[in-house]
């Protein structure tokens, strides 16, 4: 590769990723540090991350946008549950308004990261693959790395091995790689899976001029599905009375506490919550529908994420006879459909494997610290944004239970700003959490969904107590992160400290 011997460009902060986390973090950091050089590296060719990658029918948010949106940028569209293209347009507007679009370098993928305590800097090797130009790899030095890469692999989804796959004569598609303008009109579709993607695709594929003949959601295990209004009428009233900015702030306040109390209720009273969910589902479906067969999960509410259906569109598709649900295991694919363990065969022209994601931290970037390879799977989270043994590297990891993802992104950025200011004020070049040897740990996410359990070993861990434990609510994190900046677990040092330590170590070796 050309460029391997090039003199490294220098930056103060490098943000990896230009999705919802990267754009939001860049806005906070640019506003806080107008004099610092901030670079945003994006491997894809457009802004948006998830909202640019996924193009499957009906792709939308699974959270309402008044809390999924940024605190500093009101969500003005009437749809609280928004289609993917609207979210991407919102990110583009935000980036342009805050001058972040000028910081983004597209088709720039970080392929390795090496930390030097002596230099107090990371050296990133970046593969530049701009269309029409010869690919090259260039070095980039930075004092701080901000990982905004999400937690799943962009280059592959999860698809189990299905016997007879090669026998099926129709199309087999994964939502993560949905072909542009794919025509499923008047076709029989089987969507394998019962998560948010499947619940989104099923009603979307039954409506419009290209509607499928019939869509079957084939699930091994039922999921809790709850109706949420696509348009928040209370929010609309608050906007009219208070204006855009104050109405948005009031709506965020309302929704943050609504979600906190509702999820808390489901967790504290799971049997009551299960009964409530069953009754709501029963009311949304035709009389006599087999609710206990298809919508009675074997786990408690919020042991896995609830799926949302805007205005009940999923249930309406079933009630209209355009969609159905089958709960069974797959024996094999056949020439013309899917054979179930029960012996029933579901005919299909198209099979959609909405079977989940593969998780991966930091896009799988290999990292070394002073020449030693870092195993991310052995690291422990500190305050939900730093990792033990990983200096000057923060990451955005939003909420997966009580609150919208982006609420944590804002808190993380504000904490990192305080931390960098502390380093600058005291002449430090290194901040690194140090975990106690033999500390008790748990999986990073307290969800038992398949995509979580499959990849638990390769993901960082969390401790059993603060500051190593991941908090799951905005309210709790806000108290923690707005409190004291650091404790005895976060160690600071300067390049001169490192040089003195090496000199002392060298002297001991010579005495020996």
Automatic annotation (TrEMBL):
Highest taxon, organism lineage: Bacteria
Molecular-function GO terms, alphabetical: monooxygenase activity
Enzyme Commission code(s) on record: 1.14.13.-
Named cofactor requirement(s): FAD
Top enzyme category: oxidoreductase
Family annotation (Pfam families): NAD_binding_8 (PF13450)
Keywords assigned: Monooxygenase, Oxidoreductase
InterPro entries in the record: FAD-binding_MO, FAD/NAD-bd_sf
Keyword Transmembrane helix among UniProt keywords: no
Homology family: Belongs to the FAD-binding monooxygenase family.
Protein name per the record: Flavin-containing monooxygenase
Source species taxonomy: Bacteria, Bacillati, Actinomycetota, Actinomycetes, Pseudonocardiales
């Amino acid at each position: 590769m050309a460029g391997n011997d090039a003199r490294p460009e220098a930056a103060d902060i490098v943000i990896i990723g230009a999705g919802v986390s990267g754009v939001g973090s860049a806005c906070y950091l640019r506003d806080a540090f107008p004099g610092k050089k901030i670079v945003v590296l994006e491997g894809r060719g457009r802004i948006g991350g998830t909202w640019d990658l996924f193009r499957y029918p009906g792709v939308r948010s699974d959270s309402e946008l008044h809390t999924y949106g940024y605190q500093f940028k009101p969500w003005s569209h009437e749809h609280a549950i928004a289609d993917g293209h609207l979210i991407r347009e919102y990110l583009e507007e935000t980036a342009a308004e805050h001058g972040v679009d000028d910081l983004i370098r597209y088709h720039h993928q970080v392929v390795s990261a090496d930390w030097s305590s002596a230099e107090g800097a990371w050296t990133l090797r970046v593969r530049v693959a701009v269309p029409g130009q010869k690919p090259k790899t260039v070095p980039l030095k930075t004092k701080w790395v901000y990982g905004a890469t999400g937690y799943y692999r962009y280059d592959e989804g999860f698809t189990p091995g299905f016997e007879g796959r090669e026998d099926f004569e129709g199309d087999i598609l994964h939502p993560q790689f949905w072909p542009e303008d794919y025509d499923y009109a008047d076709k029989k579709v089987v969507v394998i899976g019962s998560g948010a993607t499947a619940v989104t695709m099923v009603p979307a594929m039954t409506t419009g001029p290209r509607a499928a003949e019939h869509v079957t959601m084939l699930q091994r295990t039922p999921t809790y599905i709850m109706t949420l209004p696509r348009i928040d009428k209370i929010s609309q009233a608050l906007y009219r009375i208070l204006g855009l900015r104050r109405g948005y702030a009031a709506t965020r306040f309302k929704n943050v506490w609504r979600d906190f109390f509702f999820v808390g209720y489901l967790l504290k009273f799971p049997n009551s919550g299960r009964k409530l969910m069953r009754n709501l589902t029963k009311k949304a479906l035709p009389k006599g529908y087999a609710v206990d067969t298809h919508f009675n999960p074997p786990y408690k509410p919020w042991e896995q994420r609830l799926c949302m259906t805007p205005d009940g569109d999923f249930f309406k598709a079933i009630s209209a006879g355009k969609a159905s649900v089958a709960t069974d295991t797959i024996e094999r694919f056949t020439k013309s459909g899917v054979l179930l363990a029960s012996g029933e065969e579901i005919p299909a022209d198209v099979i959609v494997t909405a079977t989940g994601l593969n998780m991966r931290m930091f896009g799988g970037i290999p990292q070394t610290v002073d020449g030693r390879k870092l195993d991310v799977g052995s690291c422990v989270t500190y305050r939900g944004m730093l990792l033990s043994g990983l200096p000057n590297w923060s990451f955005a990891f939003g909420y997966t239970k009580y609150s919208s993802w982006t609420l944590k992104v804002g808190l993380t950025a504000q904490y990192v700003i305080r931390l960098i200011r502390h380093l600058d004020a005291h002449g430090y070049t290194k901040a690194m959490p140090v975990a106690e040897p033999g500390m008790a740990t748990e999986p990073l996410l307290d969800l038992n969904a398949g995509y979580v359990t499959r990849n638990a070993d390769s993901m960082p861990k969390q401790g059993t107590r603060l500051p190593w434990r991941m908090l799951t609510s905005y309210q709790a994190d806000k108290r923690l992160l707005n409190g004291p900046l650091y404790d005895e677990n976060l160690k600071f040092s300067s390049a001169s400290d490192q040089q003195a330590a090496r000199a002392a170590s060298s002297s001991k070796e010579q005495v020996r």
